[in-house]
TrEMBL record:
This is Glycosyltransferase. The keyword Membrane applies. Its main location: Golgi. The chain crosses the membrane at residues 21-39.
Length: 430
């Protein structure tokens, strides 16, 4: 293009021809500008055969002063400027986006990911699987060397059952630990919240651990409001994860009938027992809500799932898991909230304006294997094939008379007393 323009300019450098040519060029520029701006996509685009004829006559007549070539030249210049402009706009947009990401700390995460793993092309249909098994953190023994030493002895395959207990739940702790011993599970640990519980566990040969009295978390416990205590479990768990262990967190109102470690998938950040009582409530369903005033669009579909039970879940030592513990502990320290509700909200709510969701991976445990007491007492025991179900654990979470129901469960499943459960109503009588 440039070379051609030079030739044109050089061509008009002598005598009258010069002024004539200058006029022609001036007129050409003028017409060209009008054409370029009034018809940015070209004057002769969507043309009829008739205008095509006009065009050829136009070309012939304008050939001496070369205005058509000037027009084309200017048009292409305008186009290239517009292209440059679009290119600049794109650059500005990319920079703005980068700045936004940088501010939100997301660019950092993307860079981190690129350092850790290679970028891959998406494979063919049916071969693409997203990441749900997040990498585990590098164990950091400095966070608690004493616990690190203890866990080396207690854990198997870097995993163990952990329960928090104080002396008020001693009788349940008794049934709980007896059931674990009976099944032959060696990798479990009681976090004793007081000296009496520690002594009790030691006297029974139950692996136990009490935190150092000057520990920050323990001083929270001593001085604390109720809010702080409900968050304690999540703060204590954090250290186990930081040390690189997977924890099966267990409440004390649970009877073990098989080894749970034989029934885990271990593919998600959190694998949890459900408060649900059938396939829909435990695993999720599409609940249709109706608003008749909307007529044609009166049905709104909603995603529903019964909450995960924050008293029995398996948590892997990953970044999303640790962030979950931190988020739950933080919210519980600031307001009087139910820890199970907070646990589920953090696990389930997506990102939205003003909120970054956690996006941890989740798996619901089989509710017939990891069974809550509603499934047992309200549903399953009345069914003809009740005997075919072999639960791994039974959690007396739905009933306030926990200790007698735990003992009855042991009688039924361990000692074979067929009528051991009969005396108990389906639900509580308030
Ligand atoms: C519940 O789901 C399981 C598989 O997850 C299936 O085998 C069973 O038939 C389902 N039960 C009902 C009542 O749909």
């Amino acid at each position: 293009m440039t070379g051609r323009r030079e030739t044109l300019l050089r061509g008009g450098s002598q005598g009258i021809r010069v002024s004539r040519l200058a006029m022609a060029v001036g007129a050409g520029i003028f017409v060209g500008c009008i054409f370029a701006f009034a018809y940015p996509h070209g004057f002769f685009r969507s043309e009829t055969p008739q205008t095509q004829q006009q065009r050829s006559s136009l070309q012939v007549s304008s050939a001496p002063c070369e205005s058509s070539e000037r027009t084309n030249l200017l048009k292409s210049e305008v186009n290239s400027l517009m292209e440059k402009n679009a290119g600049l706009k794109k650059q500005v947009r990319e920079l703005t986006l980068k700045l936004q990401q940088e501010e939100q700390g997301k660019d950092q995460a993307q860079k981190q990911f690129l350092v850790l793993g290679k970028q891959h092309k998406a494979g063919p249909v049916g071969t693409v699987k997203s990441l749900r098994t997040n990498p585990t953190v590098l164990p950091d023994e400095t966070v608690n060397p004493r616990l690190a030493k203890l866990l080396k002895k207690v854990a198997i395959n870097r995993e163990l059952i952990v329960a928090l207990a104080d002396i008020h739940v001693r009788d349940m702790l008794n049934v709980w630990s007896d059931s674990i011993k009976r099944v032959g599970i060696p990798n479990y640990l009681v976090v004793a919240l007081d000296d009496d519980t520690l002594k009790y566990c030691e006297s029974k040969g139950v692996p136990a651990y009490k935190r150092d009295p000057d520990d920050k978390v323990d001083s929270v416990l001593r001085t604390a409001s109720n809010h702080a205590i409900s968050g304690l479990k999540f703060q204590i768990l954090r250290e186990f994860l930081q040390l690189g262990y997977s924890v099966l967190l267990s409440d004390i109102d649970i009877v073990y009938l098989q080894n749970p470690f034989d029934h885990l998938y271990r593919d998600c950040d959190v694998e949890s027992m459900s408060d649900g009582h059938d396939n829909m409530t435990a695993y999720g369903y599409n609940d249709v809500s109706e608003d008749p005033k909307m007529g044609w669009a009166r049905f709104a579909h909603t995603m529903r799932i019964w909450v995960y039970n924050s008293g029995f879940f398996y948590i892997r030592p990953t970044i999303p898991s640790i962030e979950l513990l931190d988020r739950v502990a933080d919210r519980l320290s600031k307001a009087k909230l139910w820890d199970q509700a907070v646990f589920n909200e953090e696990l389930y709510f997506p990102s939205h304006p003003g909120y970054d969701g956690l996006h941890a991976s989740r798996r619901t445990m089989d509710f017939y294997l990891f069974m809550n007491s509603k499934v047992l007492f309200k549903i399953l025991r009345h069914e003809h094939n009740f005997a075919q179900y072999k639960p791994v654990v039974l959690h007396v979470n739905y009933h306030p008379d926990k200790l007698p129901r735990m003992k009855a469960i042991v009688e039924y499943y361990v000692n074979g007393k067929q009528d051991a459960l009969k005396a108990f109503p389906d639900g509580s009588d308030w």
